[in-house]
Amino acid sequence: MQRVRQLIRDVPNFPEPGIMFRDITPVLEDGQAFAQVIDTLAQRYVGQKLTKVAGIESRGFIFAAALAYRLGCGLVIVRKPGKLPRATKSIAYALEYGEGTLHVHADAVGPTDRVILVDDLIATGGTAAAAAKLLADCGAHVTEVAAVIELTALKGRDLLAPLPVHALIAY
Ligand code: AMP
Predict the structure, then answer these.
(1) pLDDT tens-place string over residues 111-144
(2) Is 96 known to be catalytic?
(3) Phi, psi dihedrals of residue 149, rounded to the nearest 5°
(4) 2 Cα to the center of ligand 1, angstroms
(5) Are the C-beta atoms of 117 and 56 separated by less than 8 Å?
(6) In the chain, N or C terminus with fewer CB closer than 10 Å?
(7) Which CATH number fits the domain that encloses residue 155?
(8) Looking at 3, 9, 29, 96, which residue is catalytic?
(9) Does residue 100 lie in a domain region?
């Protein structure tokens, strides 16, 4: 994972002052590194009888889609408001400033599904916790949250507990 770590770019004060943005786009642009991320995650989840991989808008989609293909699972997209055309379930959750809402198509997952939830990065864990609750509200069994990066100081892992978090790179 050293190559992947070296490719991640630290961008200070983006999107607002005081935030150190961890930019994963150079990882996507490097075929070997992108493949290593997906292959490493796939090795962990192959054989776990997962039915779906759920990705969180929007960088989560990139990793979730490749992983779902690799595992032979379906892809479920957890989206921001106003994007999904059919009946949805939704959940509101607290952001640093204000509130966010996530939606999933109501028939995208159900009680027969074992799902992992994927995002590029876990910070406070608030987004992933809301997405996990949304999938659980649909009846799915969410087994783990997978991310490329975990910002450990923000203790997202604690917020998500008892749901396990698996991250490839910790800051
Ligand atoms: P949180 O809900 O606090 O865990 O935030 C997670 C979401 O915000 C993920 O979708 C990340 O892509 C994004 N995010 C939060 N902090 C950062 C950061 N420092 N660098 C890049 N993305 C971030």
Answers:
(1) 999 999 999 999 999 999 999 999 999 999 999 9
(2) yes
(3) -125, 140
(4) 21
(5) yes
(6) N
(7) 3.40.50.2020
(8) 96
(9) yes
